[in-house]
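Team,

Forwarding the record for the chain on the shared tracking sheet. I've put the sequence and predicted structure together so nobody has to dig through attachments.
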Amino acid sequence: MQIPCFIANWKMYKTIAESADYLHSFEKELQPLPQDAWEAILAPPYTALATVSQILKQVPLPIRLAAQNLYFEEQGAYTGEISPRMLRELCQYVIIGHSERRGLFGETDREINKKIRAAAKEGLIPILCVGETAEERREGKTWRVIERQLSEALDLGNLSEVLIAYEPVWAIGTGMTPHPSEAEAVHFQICNYLSQGEKSARILYGGSANDKNIEGFMKEPHINGVLAGGASLSPEVFAKIIKLGSAAKISR
């Protein structure tokens, strides 16, 4: 069984001081847990990456660090962008293709492919987000959309490691979620798709995941963790998600 992974995407929340306070509370909440039963990845805003990185070096827990985005060029005159070279000194992971990047900032599958290639070249592990809109779901296009996103974003021959986050766009921040069995069906299809390229990956669920629904999702065989947004902003709630989720996966 793969170790379940729990990702906290803080989005555009938390100052440097607030991030440090979060970590101190988060560490206390997780101390009693067995360290070989879970992995957490925190994705703070760029401004807090260095501070969080330094604090985590002193924390004897399986907590890693991710950036929320990157640009695919190594360096250059790209005002406001962050390159993989800049991130690799701080992070192990990077979120790529989040639905907010696709929807609000117009990122295309081609750009996402470039970002994944650039991240992998610098030794960063991509966390690729895929998912369908409400309209696409109503029209029965869920798998067609996700298969396109996967095929255009990934180069399975050259990518050594990747995490996949299935985040139905219609569920993000809405409080609505698919039934765990519906999410499991999509995860199973993603798993089969990856196996065709002789790859395996932890496949996570994202989209209004919280401490109330985590156990249902984690009891499904192909759901290996969650990418949480709003529910991850509280260290106590996110720690509870990890506690309940890892226990549910072990007892499955």
